[in-house]
User: What shape does this take?
Amino acid sequence: MDNKFEVYDPSTNIWTALASSPIPTGIDYPAITKMNGKIYVGGGFAANGNGTSSIDSYDPLTNTWTSKAADAKYYFHDIEAVGNEIYRVGANINPTQTKAYDPIANFWTIKANLNVSRVLPNLVAIGGKLYALGGQSGSITSMNAVQELIVFDDLISPSNLTANAGNTQVTLSWTAVTGATGYNIKRSTTTGGPYTTVASNVYGSPYTDTTVTNGITYYYVVTALNASGESGNSNEATATPMGSSVC
Assistant: This one.
């Protein structure tokens, strides 16, 4: 096992080792996908034979790797990008689980479970939906092939979030998401999070947060909800509530 990284040019039929940019973690059987011009590598076996929790991104423009938020130590899975998130499906740990990674928030979110257990599944994204095919069902050693093809239709993230400050309150507004049955309001005092949910299953926009303190800057994101689970985070909006001036 090594952490060397190579690039292939079909026009020259040549592989070139990128010696100056090794993968941060040497891994066997990782899952790999691409999104927004970057390559993401996650999971697999570490040098000690155990699963790895790492997910790393590679930027071809700068020839650099960046380590991202770790997940559980997993392998025998696949990852695929849909919209603004990267989805992990199947694995040795909870083989019915679907999780989504948001590169902007650098955070993992649990999504709707698969209909059947899948170890070593294959994923492909088409038209904003995620298709899972094949793999093994049951335990890792069962070797029962999964013949079912299923499709996962995720909620898109809320957009155009704005935050308007008042006296001991912040009013949030956002664009409604088709298919959403509610929204979670999340807040942090640090840009980029981590965020804490301050209101769950809110009916819709606008929403006024009255649990704030004047003079403190708050950073908000909103997620959409339906029976399938929770969307990724919206854009971040910030506001600093202030008291009314006294003349």
About this structure: The mean pLDDT is 83. The chain has two domains: 6-151, 159-239.
